[in-house]
Specification:
Blueprint (H helix, E strand, L loop, with lengths): L24 E7 L2 E6 L5 E3 L5 H7 L11 H25 L6 E5 L5 H8 L3 E6 L2 H11 L4 E3 L12 E7 L8 H11 E12 L4 H6 L12 E2 L2 H11 L2 E12 L1 H10 L5 H11 L2 H4 L3 E13 L8
Parallel strand pairs: 4-5, 4-7, 5-6, 7-8
Antiparallel strand pairs: 1-2, 2-3, 3-9, 8-11, 10-11
Amino acid sequence: MTRIPKHRSAELHYSACPVCACSELAVLFAKGGYPLGECRNCRLRFLNPQPDDSTLRIIYSPDYFLGATVPQVEARVSQMKRANASLYLDLISKYANGTLGQILEIGCGRGEFLLEAQARGFTVSGIEISPTAAAIANQRLGTEQVVAGTLENVHFPEAYFDAVAFADVIEHIREPMDFLRRVFSLLKPGGMVFIVTPSLDSWSAKLMGRQWMEYKIEHLYYFGKRTIRLALDQIGFKEILIQPNFKILSLDYIYHHFFRFPVPLITPLLRLLQRVTPKGLTHRHIKLVASGLVAMARKPDGRTSS
């Protein structure tokens, strides 16, 4: 279990909502010792104060991602990520009317999404905070297309990309509105953004309440359909489309996730299910509505008003 230091310094505290600037904030409950705040206007939820950098570094250890230290499990997780990347690229291609071009993935990990995009004819680029993962992604891609760093410290030309994609990233970002502004600036006129993030409107959030498995110290923000739409609209995006996120998962992956992040009643039930499920079925891919949302939007090209 990750040990969080009792002494915390340089924590970021908000007196107003980062999305709508409303000063009416409430505390709902605490998660791991951190209060979960909610804006009374737009209903954005966020840790307030946020954990400091040293606390987050402890959480983001080398074994943070499931299967990262077990080769067989890592290979199965990579296959699952490739399957999810295919789903995401189907959505991107449909939204973009099949137009190919320059695509950037932020938080690209070991490159599964970029490999799928490259195979479909996209010209790919990636940003990954882990130098080790970035090196593996470049090796897989066969070219140096992934840069180790963050969106804030990696340089790309303005209005360069036809699409910018990031899945399970924005909830980790300290300043999501600044992040979205930078994404907006990198897009060509008419370019699109593709976002996947846990959703407060999901069935799992509503069913589990404060025991929702997405409530984690490293998840600094929690969006719903209303708040992600508001954030994108304020940045200047148009043609905003939001829908539930379908994911490819396996029973084995679900088991390990709930063992890593235990939930009362559900984790013990999954332990029992794991014992009685034939091994051959636990790795089979299942397509289901997960705990997140997909948001797609377009940077205006000057020819349309909405």
